[in-house]
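User: Run a structure prediction on this.
Assistant: Running it now.
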Amino acid sequence: MGDIRYAWRVLRRSPGFAAIAVLSLALGIGANTAMFGVSWVLFSQPLTVSDPDELVAVTDRLTLPRGPGMRGMWQINGASYRDPATGRSYRANLSFPAYMALRNAAGGAADVFAYSFIRESNISVDGWSMTGAGALASGNYFRGAGAAIALGRALTDDDDRPGASSAVISHRFWATAMGADPAAIGRPIRVNGVPFTIVGVSGPGFVGMSRGGFFPPVDVTIPLHAQPAVTPAWGPTGESLFTSDGVFWIHAMARVKKGTALPPLEAKLTATFAAWLKGSSQPSYQRATDVEVRLLPGGRGVDELSRRARQPVRILTAVVAIVLLLACVNLANLMLARGVARARETSIRLALGSGRLRLVRQAFLESLLLSAAGSALGLWIGVFSGRALLRMFTAGAGPIAMTLSADWRTLAVTAAVACAATVLFGVLPSVRLVRRDITPAMKSAVAVGAGPPRLRSATILMAAQVAVSVPLIAGAAIFLQTMHNLQRVDLGFNPDRLVSFRIDPSLSGYERARVAQTFELTLDRVRAVPGVSAATLVGEPLLAGSSSNTTVTREDGTTADVYFNRIGPDYFATMGIPLIAGRPIDERDRLGAPRVVVINESAARTLFGAASPLGRHFRMFNVETEVAGVARDTKYDSLRKAPPPAIFLAYAQTVTPLTLGAMYVVARTTAAPAALMGALRGVVSDVDRDVPVSRMKTQTEQIQETLGTELAFTRLLVTFGAFALFLACIGLHGLTAYSVARRTSEIGLRIALGAQRGNVLWLILRQAVVVTAIGLAAGIPMTIAGTRAVAAVLYGVRPADPLSLSAAVGLMSAVTALAAYLPAHRAARLDPLTALRAE
């Protein structure tokens, strides 16, 4: 305790050093704590269910033949799982008959259950309507998942029957939409206009088989057999999804009994699935090859969110580890510099009989106090910055049910990082402090003629610090160029003063005719709003991250993969997309009229080569389709991707297996779009107050949302690069001051013997120049290797970009030169009498 009190008094006498040390450690430890928390939530945190390790996803792979008469696979809510051992991707979708075949084949070895997401539903409770997410689930869903029930009961097999009317709401929905009313059980609730009765509330934290991303957290779970009433648009007209073997809309999972070997069960399920395909009504399924069923880890549910965050998280994890290392190296140098000022004190204590181990402990306790203070502040920074990082990595993903808090894992990681930091910046200076010869220190001088003191450890540490800082600074410069290039990319359309919003009349249970009528009335009313110059409809807005693709058959019978989008009249004029040839989609293109489409330049080359595509035909969804026009290529779902081959078809000519479903209304305004959003919402309410409006935003906001994660990521890299530069500046300043302090008598003697101030200045600066040069020589290859490792996330800039590398080298050289110049300048102005009097 006496040593701790003494260490505290020593640190209080150096508040500047203590503040820099604590803040440096806090930022380094906080950043690492935050990244650990984010990585845990995104990549490791399981679903809130009992024994999540027992859950497996029932997935499959197969190869379908292509050619005339060969049908592809129509999927609803397509998802996939990746095998952690091989990295291969497996599809998570099944048809209902295939699911039943696999469930029966599993027998008692596994409890196989099914569900399907309703990504956007119109949910009504107590007369209030809201947009939420739903799920269709088999009767054994809650039992198989191991999900707790907080109130009431779970769904059972008796609930999952035609005409089902039971519903289980999530704990989150119960708390937010119903005020956690304990009388919620037995209350009516409507999903897409269909009445249900609430029979249960799921346990806290359970939001279905997805915690966010493409599949949002579930608000209400209803029986699987409610699908025809709730989502009638899913299947081909007149065909039940419960008998159709051509529509894959079921996600299947299983709770495997403990002790069950997976390979034999997978082999049994593969044989069952292959036999089912052979007996299906689809010729392409009967000829499927490479059939395989895999039971992959499912304790985290369907996870489409973490995939896009994996690379940025890896990069930032490496960056924050480097930042902490820089902080520790910098503090080690500062501790060495402080040791010079205390050399006389240390030597006197050694001369009076103090043990060297006691002095090491004393110095180590100072490091421990700094580390403890830095860890406490770092934990606070880590939790709050971790939440901001989590929002950054999930930006634009819609609702999520992920939280980051200071649990035992976070505390353990913080403690471990603090211990490592203490060892890194505390042990080396402490050991060097007591290994020195006490005689020169007792004289307060270095013997004349002994030459400059050896600073090997400090020099090596400083050179390493410069070397590690260069990749951070160059990386920040490269990502700044990437963002600059992405923001200046040619979109192919005019994004200014465009606003869009989503409506889905089918969520209110309307038939196709009324859905089409609602779209037409809404479009007419929007065009009449003052300040709106043009308006149209589109199935998927540009650069929203979503896309639809299919396979079309050319005139010669060959096939090609293309993207497609449903549009309304005036689409190209509203979006500012020039037509290269032909005509656009207009009011003539209605249901019953010959199917015509507009294709983009990429699709024209893909389907017809150099020949004119106008008037040419191909088959799409088994319907003969004529090309009426060719539009300019535009960015489609991503700024990074080249324009894909895209086909634009009239939404009014939508036929099975496509249905009208949801559409986006897009309006071009003459005034600021934000000023018209209220009026646009009012238009939809006037047309039909039961149709909810969602996802209203400007095209500029949509693009910024698309870039949101990358923009925040770049800002973080710039921040960490600036922090590394700041640490390098402090470190080199401390090293130079350390050198000046040890060479005071030598400098005074040189000046007394006639040395010019310029000579003394260069004598001190020379060491800083050498250290910086060594660090740059080591840092440049590290930078080249590091940027090549992240080449996949760059855009319009080479990994070893000469401009970014030169900027990093120049900035590092300038800053370190300035940091070293200040103590060197003071040394050059040293009074020789003052220096020699100490001899």
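The chain is about 50% helix and 20% strand.
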